[in-house]
Amino acid sequence: MTAAQADLPTDLQANSLEMPEGLRIDTPDVADGAAIWRIARDSKVLDLNSSYSYLLWCRDFAATSVVARDANGEPAGFITGYIRPERPRTLVVWQVAVDQAHRGRGLAGALLDGLTAKVAADRELVSVETTITPDNTPSERLFTSYAQRHGASVERTVLFDAGLFPDEGHLPEVLFLIEPITETGKAAQIEPVEPVG
Predict the structure, then answer these.
(1) In contact, 145 and 109? CB cutoff 8 Å
(2) Is 50 exposed, middle or buried (0-12, 13-18, 19+ CB in 10 A)?
(3) How many CA atoms lie within 13 A of 39 on its CB side?
């Protein structure tokens, strides 16, 4: 069990994935914006937003986002999220990406577990929402596995049909509503890591 996992409430310890060795979870800051943008760009799967939007995200939505840091303090993966204004007990997961060098180690799942524990420590969290295009099997597996680990159900409905997008070829965005999310008490230990060198 990692130090971060040991700080999770007992009910989440059994259901949460451990951070891969050499990585730790942290809150993003503005200085991470450029690296997060590069990780999103290099994923070749995510809709890439402007670099400016990632800087804003790290400033305005840091409390509902997480970053994984390597031993040098550099971002190795991230999740951006926000609280849905019309449903203040719902966390919307916007983007999840892991740097290619760190894929295949369970990092995305560990980040998702850590993020929901972090958010639930500050507010009542009942559900998690995300949208996934029908061709994104890895994301579907990530969120389905998350729901199974936490004993939640997954309801799928088309949120945005392909015809709503101005760019040709955009697939529909399917809403995954995951609930109920159990009370989690305090969050995973999230501490800033000073860069080495």
Answers:
(1) yes
(2) exposed
(3) 26
pLDDT attached to residue 20: 87
For the entire predicted model, the pTM comes to 0.84
Outline where 71-183 has alpha helix (H): 107-122, 137-149
17, 109 in Cβ contact below 8 A?
yes
Tell me the two tokens of residue 58.
């790290």
8 A C-beta contact, residue 84 and residue 92:
yes
Question: Smallest Cα–Cα separation from 157: which of 146, 142, 173?
Answer: 173
Strand pairing category for 75-84 and 87-98 = antiparallel
Q: Which of 4-18, 37-51, 163-177 has the lowest mean pLDDT?
A: 4-18
CA distance 183 to 180: 9
Please report the pLDDT score of residue 196 as a whole number: 36
* Residue from 93, 95, 110, 103 nearest 54 by CA: 95
Contact 81, 61 (CB under 8 A): yes
Q: Whole-angstrom Cα distance, residue 157 to residue 25?
A: 31
Distances, alpha carbon 69 to alpha carbons 19, 27, 123, in Å? 10, 10, 25
